[in-house]
Every structure is written in structure tokens, then in C-alpha cells.
């Protein structure tokens, strides 16, 4: 994990899929297939390609950061003034593929706060959920 | 205000101690903070302005307690996105079943 990502808010969703990486890769990189489960789009798995995901609630603009076929895909994700990075990681398993999505985000107006707090962010954010549960 | 308040490691440490140990006086908070009492008081004022702590005067002592619910805006984004992606993963699994 890079230093940058430890200073920001992160969402991770991970699943074991009974399908080979080659198939999962097509589902997350081919425009028509992405449209079936994520959003309508003009996505292309090409570095620096800028694309738009469209839904009835609005749109997401992104730029492809890196492409490593059947292994890793990373793109920026900007919506509602919130800029974040989505990284997909595919790992081949004996039964198929482990698919991991990590979204790391921050708002520009929060940047200074995040950068001002180099140490302690990850532990602090890990603890937040617990603190809030106790508060209810 | 909230992000600025929580961005400072000293303030975060004070806030976390109040979350863990409950109600504490300025004196008790100063004792293990490694900074002066006026500095602690200044940090507590900023935490109070952000709604993260509440003060209560008891005789000559001021007691502080954490108000962790004030942190909710920080969590909203992660909660919202986690819900969004769980739904999308469900749809992705459905698609994979239909694909060759």
C-alpha cells in the first residue's frame, strides 16, 4: 500500500468468483459488459483513456491509470466533486478468481487536512466504526 | 471545521483518549499529553468548536467528554460507496453466470 492511500478514506469489496480471471477481466473491461452490471459507458482498457459512466442519478468521469490484463485495472473516479481511485485486482484461485475492488477517495477541500495528518490516519479510521457503534 | 479539527495528531490523540477513558479534566488530559495545559486547552477549544467534545464545569474543574457522533460525516462516504459496490458485485455475478 502506498503512503498516499493511507491518508485517505478507503472502501474495499472482495469476492470469490467461480469463474476464470480471463472471463472476469472481460466483464470489468469491455464496455458492453460493464454496461450490464455497472453503468452505461464509453470505457476502453487503455492507459490515459478518459471515459464516462452514466446512470439515471448522474455520471462519473474517469481516466484509466493502469492496465495489466487479467491482473489489475486502475482508474480515477470523479463524481459529485469527490475524486477517488478505483483499483481492481484479480487473483487466480483453484476455484476461479478472487476479485478485489479498492476505492480510495478524498475531496479536494479535504486534501489539506489529509496531508496535514500523515501519521495515524489508518488506525484512526479503522477505529471510527467501532467508536460510532458505541455511540448509538 | 471537522476535518481541520481532526487533522492534527495531538488533537486526535486527545479525542481518542476521551473516547476510550470517558470524562476527563484538563489536568488529567495534560498529564500524559506531553504538552502544556494552555496548549491542551487550545486544542480542546478547537475540538469543541467542531462538536467533537463537550465541556462541563464542576466547581473549579472543567471536564471534557467525547461526542463521537460528530464524526459521522467522515463515515458517510465510505458507507455509501460500500453499499453501491456490494450491489454492483451482485449484478456482476449475475452477468458472469450468463457469459460464456
Structure notes:
The complex is a heterodimer of chains A (136) and B (100). With 136 residues, chain A is an alpha+beta fold. Chain A has one domain (7-135): 2-Layer Sandwich (Alpha-D-Glucose-1,6-Bisphosphate, Chain A, domain 4). Chain A has helices at 3-6, 21-29, 31-37, 111-116, 121-135; strands spanning 9-17, 40-41, 50-55, 58-68, 72-79, 82-93, 96-106. Chain A contains five helices and seven strands; from the N terminus they run H-E-H-H-E-E-E-E-E-E-H-H. In chain A, strand 2 and strand 3 (50-55) form a beta hairpin. With 100 residues, chain B is of the alpha+beta class. In chain B, strands 1-3-2 form a three-stranded antiparallel beta sheet. Chain B starts with a helix and ends with a helix. The interface between A and B is medium-sized, with 38 and 32 residues.
Question: Gist?
Answer:
With 136 residues, chain A is an alpha+beta fold.
Number of helices of chain B: 5
Shape of chain A: globular
Helix content of chain A: 25-40%
Q: Return Rg of chain B in Å.
A: 20 Å
Return the average pLDDT of chain A rounded to an integer. Answer: 78
Distance between the termini of chain B: 52 Å
The top level CATH class name of chain B: Mainly Alpha
**CATH topology heading of chain B:** Arc Repressor Mutant, subunit A
CATH superfamily of chain B: Winged helix-like DNA-binding domain superfamily/Winged helix DNA-binding domain
CATH superfamily of chain A: START domain
Q: What class do helices, strands and sheet pairing of chain A give?
A: alpha+beta
CATH class bucket of chain A: Alpha Beta
Q: What is the CATH topology descriptor of chain A?
A: Alpha-D-Glucose-1,6-Bisphosphate, Chain A, domain 4
H/I helix tally of chain A: 5
Q: What is the arithmetic mean of pLDDT of chain B?
A: 88
- Beta-strand segment tally of chain B: 3
Stretches of chain B where pLDDT is under 50 for at least 5 consecutive residues are none
Approximate strand percentage of chain A: 35-45%
- The helix-strand sequence of chain B is HHEHHEEH
> Architecture of chain B in CATH?
Orthogonal Bundle
**How many structural domains of chain A?**
1
